[in-house]
Amino acid sequence: MYVVVVGGLLFLAFAYFAFAQAAAARNGGQSAADAAALAAAQDVRDELSDGFFEHLGDPEAWPQWLMAEGNFAGAGYNAAAAQLADENDSKLLGSVELTEVNNYPAFTARIETLFTVGDSVIPDTENTHAKADATAVIEPRCEITPDSDPSKVIEIDCEGSGRWKIDPKTPIDELVDLPMAHDLFSVHLAE
Fold first, then answer.
1. Nearest alpha-carbon partner for 166 in 18, 70, 62
2. Residue 174 CB: number of other CB atoms within 10 A?
3. Taking a C-beta distance cutoff of 8 angstroms, is the pair 120, 17 a contact?
4. Is residue 183 within 8 Å of residue 52, measured between CB atoms?
5. Nearest to 32 by CA among 176, 131, 150
6. Which residues sit opposite 104 in a β-bridge?
7. How far apart, in Å, do the first and last CA atoms of the chain sit?
8. Residue-wise pLDDT tens digits, 7-32
9. β-strands 129-140, 162-166 pairing
10. pLDDT by residue (tens digit) across 120-165?
């Protein structure tokens, strides 16, 4: 009887170990998905920031870029997501999905780990890869100040970085003390 009880306890211990291995693989996969989604969103955040500065002379266009409504049809965000997934020992499944969260642009990345759960008492875990997905959101951090006259000076108030005054008539390469992309937009994982 003692041998049967000890054998059963050992089997349970190995089974719990297998579940711990699976949880570790899942956590690694989730980290890779988070990183891939954030990389895609940060790539587009930089594109939105560049679009805002490139369109300062167009009073119809620059507010759209500032509110994250610009045309970011470039596929650079897929490459950024794939690179971060690869750096986390995973692969991007398909393309990053462009979506919306609370009317803001969002990017969903789905990954599969290149590593497996590993050998265990549960059959076929040595061939099982973890899959995960994550969504990252871009939110504008700035508002156009009510007393701003965009034909003279564009004034924006950005959460966390203060008020910025930008002369739209000055060539972009001559402007100094401009807000950075992270001043204009926040990037975070969707809850």
1. 62
2. 7
3. yes
4. no
5. 131
6. 101
7. 51
8. 666 666 655 555 655 566 666 788 88
9. unpaired
10. 555 555 667 778 999 999 999 999 888 777 777 888 899 988 888 8
